[in-house]
Amino acid sequence: MPVDAAPAPAPGHAAPDRACGVRPERVPLARPAEAARALARDGAVLLTGAEATADALVVAAATVLGARLRELYPLRERTSRDGGPVRLHADSLDLVVDIGGVPTRRRHPDEDHVLVQCLAPAPSGGASFVLDAYRFVDQLAAEEPALHTFLTTVDVDLYGGWVGLRGLPARPRVARHVEFTRSGRRVVRRTEGAVPLHRDPDAERVRESLARLEARVLAAEERLPRFTPAAGEILLLDNYRCWHGRDPHAGERSVRILTLRTADAR
């Protein structure tokens, strides 16, 4: 559910990003219609009652998203020990590998949903947080219109900052932070790999805008409500609308991740 209450701002500073936080409603996987309504309303839902298995993510995706499913990408398991923070982001990556001489897509820049299942919560820390990026961008239109204009009108190379990562294409992935699908669905991207286009005459201005965006996102992150999924629970996100992250933690923490595209994807 959206969260409207927020701590008071520090003296001399405007309250940043009010009402952008989302505390996902917990809904049993056995009630898919209710889960779908929560996802449509808030952009995120926490599914309960699933086993901590790889099959559970695929079943959850099919149960809640149904016939809209089009493409599933390989499951990823992540275990971190005494992990640092994971900053607010939307999942996306342009990753194609060669398997037996056949180009095979393992990630897609326009994944429109992501499921994250908790396999083992951290013994200390590691709380999750979610931001409604639609609200965030709408606030920028009123509070920082120049940054809003940058996000909606300026092309960047989404993954240029990750040059050298094996599997990434040499061809730049050019896009704006805010775009729309053919059906009118809004996409709000968030990647730490974004850089100015090669030889962009406005490269310095683009870097300044990216730095302002980073500062604004970090300020918002501090104010978001925290929640901690239990083992087996699945966070299902509208990846076009919501950004997510987690706090640092002590000890070991494990999750399994599934990204996908539906019929509504770009």
Automatic annotation (TrEMBL):
The keyword Transmembrane does not apply. Keywords: Iron, Oxidoreductase. Residues 1-20 are annotated as: Disordered. Gene3D superfamilies: Clavaminate synthase-like. Pfam families: TauD (PF02668). Coiled coil: none annotated. Residues 33-255 form the TauD/TfdA-like domain. The keyword Oxidoreductase applies. One of its GO terms (molecular function) is oxidoreductase activity. Residues 1-19 have a biased composition (Low complexity). It comes from the Bacteria. This is TauD/TfdA-like domain-containing protein. It comes from Streptomyces mimosae.
